[in-house]
Each structure stands twice: as structure tokens, then as C-alpha cells.
Amino acid sequence: MSKLQPATVDHRVRVQGQPVDDYPEFAPESKRGRVLRVTVVGEDILHRPCKEAVEFGTPELSQLIDDMFLTMYVAEGAGLAANQVDVDLRLFVYDCGDDDGVRHVGHILNPVIDDPAGRRRLLEAGEGCLSVPGPRHDLGREERTVVRGFDKDGNPLVIEGTGYFARCLQHETDHLNGMLYIDRLSKRQRRSVLQEMAEVKEGVFAERRTRAEAMGAEHLSVGG
Known about the structure:
CATH class: Alpha Beta
Number of helices: 3
Structural class: alpha+beta
Shape: globular
Helix content: 25-40%
Radius of gyration: 16 Å
Largest sheet: 7 strands, mixed
Number of strands: 9
CATH topology: Peptide Deformylase
Distance between the termini: 15 Å
């Protein structure tokens, strides 16, 4: 998911759902990461459900999370799913602010969204995606979301989000189910977004390369 606004850096930060007193501008994981290629709409891995994680606590999983954090920052994202870096795994990372100015940072494996009880309230707002580089479009999302899953060591996680962070959690879980935000739009809206993407994507890829170089990041590719 593309970032709406830069996350605030203050004491109001929750990491893996838990409050912390101090936190750096970028998650520490990103310092150990490499920039991976971000997949683009139309590639098969983005359009089918991802496989459940069955192994936890491995060096390979930790490295993937590190790589995903750095890739997300280089692409100026608020969230990134594993299939967006061409990995078939139910995992996403995030660094996203909510509507109250609280910054949320973390990762989650095998996420499942709780079915909301009673009447659901939808909020309409602009949404973008790193795998649909460039355009944004308004989309209705539930204003509150609870996601259950596991951390990289297999410990249970419950992450609650409201406002823009709730949107992020829904967007990234959609990815792992093989759905992009544009799949929730009308056919006409979807065509319009894809047309705009075709016109601007090379410029977006160039900006990502520039940011990777500025951050001194080791990278395989930052284009589509």
C-alpha cells in the first residue's frame, strides 16, 4: 500500500501492537535488508492466494522481513505483502499512521481479519498500491479492523487498526488473498487507473532507484 503521509516519529508508536517510548525513523530491520523487485499488476503471483507459513524462526524468514521493510521504505509505502516481492507466503510488513497520529510498525504472518459484529461503517478515501505504481483512487473500507496471525517466531499476534491503518491492514490482507485494490473498483474505474499507471510508472520506478541510491541500499532491482 502506498503511503498517504509520512508516519510521525514521536512517543506514540506501537510496534507489533505494543506501545514503545522511542523509535527511529525507519524500522531497524531495514538496516539489514536489501531492496527487492516489486511485482506489478498482471503478474500471476499477485492474482492468486498465497501459501500459509508453516516454518517460523528461520534465518530466511528474518531476512525476508528485513528485505521487505527496506523495499517498502524505498518505494515510499505504508505496507508491503510478500507476493509484492515475488514470494508466495502469507506475510506482510507495515509502517503506517492512523487517523489519530499514532504510528504502527510491524509484520504479521498468516493474517486473518475478524468478521465485524453488527453493522459495519465504511470510510471512503484515496488508496494506492506499490504494485499499481502511481495512481490513487477512492475506495470504501471498514473504519476498524482486527487482524489475527503470528510473528516470525510463531507467537500469536492480534493487531487492531482504525482509520488509515485499518485500511492498510485490509489492503495488505487482500494482497495475500490474491486481490488488489483495483479489483474492488468498477471496470471503468479500473481501466482509468491502469491507463494512468501506464503513463507514469517509468517515472515512479526512476524515483525508487534514486531513493535506493540516496539510502545507500543494496538492491537487486527497484523497477517493475
